[in-house]
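re: ur msg from earlier - yeah i can do the zinc ion complex, just paste it... oh wait u already did. ok heres what im feeding in:
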Amino acid sequence: MQSYDIAEWGQPLQSRLRDTPQPGPEEVLVRLSYCGVCHSDVHIREGWFDLGGGNKLKLSDRGTQLPLTLGHEPIGVVQAVGGNVRGVELGRQVLVNPWIGCGQCRFCVAGRDNLCNQMRALGMAAPGGFATHLLVPHARYLVDAEGLDAARCAVLACSGVTAYSAVSKFGPLAADDWVAVLGCGGVGLLALAVLKAKGHARVIACDIDDAKLAAATQAGAAATVNLKTTPGPAELLRISGGGLSHMVDFVGAPATAQLALPALLKGGQMVVVGLFGGALPVPLPALAMREVSLRGSAVGNTQQIRELVQMVRDGRLQLPEVQVRPLAAAEDSLRDLEAGRIVGRVVLDTAEDA
Ligand SMILES: [Zn+2]
Ligand SMILES: [Zn+2]
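and the outut:
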């Protein structure tokens, strides 16, 4: 098998050839066809996330060892299964939930692996999907995707489920509620698609890049705001006629998150998803008096990926187009993503053998 790996933190990915692994008793070997490239891959390659206040989350402190195969939006077909695996058909197309936990803690037992303190996420702590083959620790992380467009569906494993899980935290929306999506990269566009699938029309897309805002309009945004040319809450307040009910921040920078208090209506909610980094000083009396909620959302779980796949099958969710590139373009794609040169999502074609 071939893979593209982090050999040294912060350095370009390296191609590696090795024997294709055989699945252990509980494991499933997937012959990959595509893997999406996510902005988190840029952070993972660096080896750390900025937690704000000068604190860093270092992957090496969390037990990640190099070399590590990057990539956490994998889709492919089942090639082999371990002796204890039941109910998985060889040759079947499957999405893989990469957000895998310890399997033992209260979160994992409840199917909420994404909150596990001992995450063994594929492409972050265990070998991921920038590869021709992927070993999945258990069949419960597979989502049947037979018959669906594999390249477009790859993104459901991270950006799709991240967008869906975040927007689901809003709860039911009233038809006259205004919602803002901050950051219209791959995840933001999927959030717009999910809101559209839920039948919600009043959505304002915000970004600092007009090309991304044009893509957001195509994905169904009712209005757009360029936060570079019109910074601050004024334009959001004008369009919504006085304030938003919900916001979702796929950037996660102080500049975006600080829009919550001035732009939300009383009782409004901001869901923070992006991991750009930094910290936010929050005036506590305003938070209390205005009953504003700030909450986080971290990727999602297997059940949520299943729900998304069902929405695609029903024709409710229209998946955005993706740019398909060869697996060998993994490194260039990370650089393009880091430099903000990508509109929508890049998906690597992993079907070619080296
Ligand atoms: Zn991701
Ligand atoms: Zn766990």
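cool cool. DSSP finds twelve helices and 18 strands in the chain. ping me if u need the other ligands too
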